[in-house]
Amino acid sequence: MQSRQHSTATLRRDFAYLLPGPVFALASFTSLITLFSLSVGTFIIWVGAALLPITLRLATWFADRSRGRVRAWGLEVPEEEVPPRQPGFGGLLRELRRPGAWRDLVFELLVTMPLRFTTGLLAFCWPLVAVGGLTYWVWSWSLPEGGGSMAELFGLVFPDAQLAAWFDGNLFDIVINLVLGLAFLATLPAVLHGLAWFDAHVTRFVLGRVDWSWLLGGIAGVTLLAVTWPVLAAIYGVHAALAGALALATAGAVVLAVRLPVTSTIVAAIGLLATALASAPAPGLPWPVPATGIVAGVLVIAIVGLRRPWYLAVLTWVVLSGASLAGALIGTGGGTGGALANFTTFASIAAGVAVLAMVARTLRSNRGEIEQVRALTAQEQRKRAELEERNRIAQELHDVVAHSLSVTSVQATTAKYRLPNLVPEVVDEFDTIADSSRRALGEMRGLLRLLRGDGDAELAPQPTLAELHHLIESSRASGAEVEYIDGLGDAAAREIPATVALAAFRIVQESISNALRHSHGARIHVELRRASDALEVEVVNGSPDESRPVQPSPGAGLGLAGLRGRTEALGGTFAAGSERGNGFAVRARLPID
């Protein structure tokens, strides 16, 4: 049951896709061919210059309808990116530089009519033949007498068959039409789906991301083949088989020029020379290069000039001109005025096309470089805007944190004057807090100057491993129980590179800060070890002291990520995670060599 429903849905979808095709094709072809003809005919008076972009936009609109029909059928087709139209006449003319618009125009003018009328009419006639054959016995009486029958046709094909001995002609017609109707009805779903599949895939191939030069080259090649063959055979008197081979070589050279310029040049030269020899002499006709040969040679030179470096276009022009000249000299035994005039005409036209193609390629290349520079400039402007925003945030962060640090420093400094009878240990604690606040405030101001690019930023030496003792003592002064094992010694510490020493200092500093924030009262173990080719840093803290509950200080979660990035930048390894007993450990290995 589900299979039958699926077949019915597929049949309806194929019908809905195929039957409107000829209507859409006729509407697009008639409107576009009218506008395109008017555009080309009036381009010299600038009316066509304004009408042609409108024609291209309309072609894209019709092509979008074709893409939408293909998507509705079930096949994905890439969207055509149409930039918004710029104001003014210049913005209108920019439409002429969009390759997708020309591809849409070629598709709607040259592909849709034969494609859609073929598939649409077959989709319309196939079920009619099926219905007509199945109901022939009902309406056959209305046919005029003597109009012929299937029996007579069968007798012409098989004269030895004795149909009259089997049954009369009317019964034979009914049986044959019934068989044909059943055959057309049985094959209707497959035929319709095949037609829809072919139509949709051709549409997707042409309107997708296919290289437009392949499309234009293929169309030009087919057109040249269809024109050159009868021209050589009927007008120039070349044998039909030889004319077909020469026409195929001429048309094939145009298609090959898209990707194989050297091969295309050789094939075109052989075709021109062979055409001249096969059609010589040709009095009263363009010779040694027929009109179709001139078109083919010009197209080959134009394609090579637009897609390849200039020297290949010049080489193609030289080879093809030389082939036509050789044909004129060999075919006439020294050349005649008409042959040399024909050669001059071909060489002049080809030279002009080569120059125009090379100029167009240069302009397109320059435009591409300009667009690339514009893109890089826009990217740099975005980066600059981001940096300015970061600097603004840094300024706001400085204003917020600096105020708090300043208040903390002032309160800690004046505490011994404002609060009488403080014991010396408490006074020392306040002095330590004030000193730490002033240091942090100075470092923040220095970082802010660096972010803002101030030239007068204070320069201070980076901390080294020798200052770890001060960091440990400062942490112990705040009440933390810190065990420090220095496995290096002063001599070994001095041999550690500055970048490694700074990374080790920051790892210990951030790890102790995390332990003080999240595990208040926990015992902290700090150890530095020298391996054969690396410095190993280990900071482990135990579980927090439950007898002294303190609200954990929230953090941004960026400290460990920064340490990991700093370590990996030096080629080392970094690990941080929970330990047994609700503790936490940070371990890093920093290469020295």
Automatic annotation (TrEMBL):
The keyword Heme does not apply. Residues 17-206 form the Putative sensor domain. Keywords: ATP-binding, Coiled coil, Kinase, Membrane, Nucleotide-binding, Phosphoprotein, Transferase, Transmembrane, Transmembrane helix, Two-component regulatory system. GO terms for molecular function: kinase activity. Signal peptide: none annotated. It is an enzyme of class 2 (transferase). Residues 503-592 form the Histidine kinase/HSP90-like ATPase domain. Gene3D superfamilies: 1.20.5.1930, Histidine kinase-like ATPase, C-terminal domain. The lineage of its organism: Bacteria, Bacillati, Actinomycetota, Actinomycetes, Micrococcales. Residues 389-453 form the Signal transduction histidine kinase subgroup 3 dimerisation and phosphoacceptor domain. It comes from the Bacteria. Residues 370-397 form a coiled coil. This is histidine kinase. It catalyses: ATP + protein L-histidine = ADP + protein N-phospho-L-histidine. The chain crosses the membrane at residues 15-37, 43-63, 121-139, 174-198, 210-232, 238-258, 265-282, 288-306, 313-333, 339-360. Its EC number is 2.7.13.3.
